[in-house]
Amino acid sequence: MVRELTPKQQRWIAAYIGPACFNATEAAHMAGYAGDRRTLAVTGHRTRYTPLVAAGITARCRAWHVEEEFLRACRSPPNRVRGQWEADV
User: Fold this and answer.
1) What contacts 24+ positions apart, CB below 8 Å, involve 11-18?
2) Burial class (CB in 10 A: 0-12, 13-18, 19+), 59
3) What does the pLDDT look like over 15-30, one tens digit per residue?
4) Sites in the chain below the pLDDT cut of 50
5) Domain-located, residue 1
6) DSSP single-letter state for residue 38
7) Which range marks the domain in which residue 54 is found?
8) pTM metric for this prediction
9) N or C, which terminus of the chain has less Cβ within 10 Å?
10) How many domains does the chain have?
11) CATH code (residue 82)
């Protein structure tokens, strides 16, 4: 049996790589998962480490040519990232 991503998992990946900037909790909220912040944090974490979703993230990043440097910057605290961008300008 070949498993495919559910529509909600696809939305989660798009949010995680896009506007949620690699924040699993925020991606869960944006994808339409239900619950309070704590529940969304657990859901986001579980979704992130589901093998099929992890493969989808890697594939989407490669397809969008997301650079490793950008990925590291998105994982940094917001003030640090903002400071790096301001320093580059």
Assistant:
1) 12/44, 12/47, 12/53, 13/53, 13/56, 13/57, 13/60, 14/60, 16/48, 16/57, 17/57, 17/60, 17/61, 17/64, 17/66
2) exposed
3) 998 899 889 999 999 9
4) 79-89
5) no
6) H
7) 7-88
8) 0.71
9) N
10) 1
11) 1.10.10.1400
